[in-house]
């Protein structure tokens, strides 16, 4: 049976790269495929971590014009890609779940890239590193069809879904909406507190006097100890918050560094 060979190439930002992380990654992904882990400098760009599939198969499968390519794609590559995306996505999610339970920072991969014979397909991962395998296969199928139909032509190095500009705009909108929601919640709580009836002044004074008589200093010390104990107890990282990523606009990145945006709903480039 014809079966592709997979190598996982992980490119980590230097801020999260260490010998311990490399060893842990290789253990965690050993059941999927061999892993090569390297680091890169961030520079002025935002730090990113990339998970890449290096697909090795010594038969044509991408260009329909080559004999047997369509059969190999339909009968082997689609099923294999679906299985590999599921395995790797599940491992990434489980890996970070274990790190949260150990009160360790999560290792977030931003993009899952699949290096096909002619180009690389780069797909944005959710905040928890998940990616729906059916959607990934359908996307790869769509890109392959557009290339073979001549809609996407030229020396394309990477098809990025969504484009960087599209994703950044979506993320900014989501963050602004969440900030507005949080501000509205704070305002509502303040308004609710202001509407509560004021406590009887005499009752407050009596309570304060009683506390003082029973040893306010001791109570204060106990409260301080409780607060310190709570602060000392490690807290797990919160669950990452996903949002529905709109994958309509793609970034077509050419070998010469040119980037054009492509509207996949219309199968045409954005002017």
Describe what this molecule looks like in 3D.
The longest helix has 33 residues, at 69-101. Strand 7 and strand 8 form a beta hairpin. A nine-stranded mixed β-sheet has the order 2-1-3-4-5-6-7-8-9, with helices on both faces. It is globular. Helix 2 runs antiparallel to helix 3. By secondary structure, it is of the alpha/beta class. It is built from six helices and nine strands. It starts with a strand and ends with a strand. It has helices at residues 19-29, 69-101, 133-148, 164-195, 201-213, 216-232; strands at 5-13, 35-40, 50-56, 111-115, 120-124, 156-161, 249-254, 259-263, 268-269. It is 45% helix and 19% strand.
Please give a quick description of this structure:
The protein is an alpha/beta fold and 271 residues long. The protein has helices at 19-29, 69-101, 133-148, 164-195, 201-213, 216-232; strands spanning 5-13, 35-40, 50-56, 111-115, 120-124, 156-161, 249-254, 259-263, 268-269.
